[in-house]
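sry for the spam today, last one i promise. struct tokens for design, 380 residues
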């Protein structure tokens, strides 16, 4: 695959493909932007009142409402509300099931791609409906912090059913890594661990009961379902959107008098401190999605690029975090705050979620470090 500025190349049988620069990138420059094939909000995130567009995860509350909710202070007044980009007048919902969207465009896109199937399935809001039960079973298996959701699988199946060309979309999904184990290193995916063995078949049966069809029948076999779980677990890119954070970013670029700049910065810092007291680090509307280009990017603990969501929706932006030369592989970190982790904790997380043992330059240089994981560095 050749695209302006970068190229997807085969590396070897173990690493598979990688993304390589075909021109120079300066630090901070955008390498590409990409929308997901499919994305979905995490169920516990929605349960706790994080309001997001069902199609693109754009916030459905404004920055002031977000600040009030996350601080538990209903009297907060934000200045410069013109810096908030939430357009509540555009919010719409499905007349049949009440699912909310940030705009008619998002609602129409969802309806055309997957929502006709899922709306028909959940219209009655029956707690005994297989999809409702499926979501509840998943929630009881996977408490926050969330890294995946069974409802992403349901949305994938709905896309296949609704499309006019099942072969093409199935081929697209098949391009993602869906190994359940790394046979070379005898690693099994975290979502398929022993503590979930009893529930995995129940999830499969519930999903099959709700969305059984001829096109994805192989996904409903025991091994096919395990592969599907591994696919979303390994390739799912976390998405975070936040109306308050977007407001902060826009306020920061305002040309304000020095005294006012100092005042507003102190005000923002106090709000973040208050949020930390109430919700800790759970500030965003959170979900995950599958991105074709992003899935081709390999991990390095000394990454040269980073994934961002600057538009506070599901549009992924890949930015260079240092200068990148032509021919250099473009790598990201699959782990948050990778530089703060010990080698042992990095390896433990990468093996559990991504089925590989990292051999990047940083890991090789720290090969002699003790196999210890501090509480601060623990990834679970």
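last one done:
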């Amino acid at each position: 695959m050749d695209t302006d500025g970068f190229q997807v190349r085969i590396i070897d049988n173990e690493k598979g493909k990688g993304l390589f620069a075909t021109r120079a990138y300066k630090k901070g420059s955008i390498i590409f932007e990409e929308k997901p094939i499919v994305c979905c909000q995490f169920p516990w995130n929605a349960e706790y009142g994080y309001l997001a567009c069902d199609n693109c995860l754009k916030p459905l509350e404004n920055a002031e409402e977000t600040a009030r909710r996350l601080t538990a202070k209903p009297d907060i007044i934000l200045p410069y509300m013109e810096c908030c980009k939430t357009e509540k007048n555009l919010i719409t919902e499905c007349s049949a099931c009440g699912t909310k969207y940030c705009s008619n465009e998002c609602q129409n896109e969802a309806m055309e791609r997957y929502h006709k199937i899922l709306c028909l399935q959940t219209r009655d809001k029956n707690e005994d409906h297989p999809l409702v039960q499926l979501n509840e079973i998943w929630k009881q298996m996977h408490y926050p912090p969330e890294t995946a959701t069974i409802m992403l699988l349901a949305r994938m199946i709905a896309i296949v059913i609704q499309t006019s060309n099942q072969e093409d979309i199935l081929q697209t999904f098949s391009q993602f890594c869906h190994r359940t184990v790394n046979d070379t290193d005898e690693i099994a995916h975290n979502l398929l661990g022993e503590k979930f063995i009893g529930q995995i078949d129940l999830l499969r049966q519930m999903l099959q009961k709700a969305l059984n069809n001829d096109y994805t029948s192989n996904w409903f076999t025991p091994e096919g379902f395990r592969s599907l779980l591994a696919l979303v677990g390994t390739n799912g890119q976390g998405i975070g959107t936040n109306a308050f954070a977007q407001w902060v970013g826009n306020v920061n670029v305002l040309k304000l008098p020095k005294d006012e700049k100092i005042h507003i910065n102190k005000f923002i810092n106090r709000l973040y401190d208050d949020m930390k007291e109430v919700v800790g680090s759970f500030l965003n509307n959170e979900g995950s999605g599958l991105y074709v280009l992003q899935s081709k990017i390999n991990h390095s603990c000394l990454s040269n690029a980073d994934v961002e969501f600057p538009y506070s929706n599901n549009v992924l932006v890949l930015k260079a975090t240092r200068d990148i030369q032509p021919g250099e592989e473009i790598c990201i970190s699959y782990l948050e705050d990778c530089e703060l982790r010990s080698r042992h904790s990095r390896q433990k997380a990468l093996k559990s979620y991504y089925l590989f043992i990292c051999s990047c330059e940083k890991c090789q240089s720290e090969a002699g470090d003790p196999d210890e994981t501090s509480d601060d560095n623990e990834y679970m």
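The radius of gyration is 22 Å. ok im logging off now
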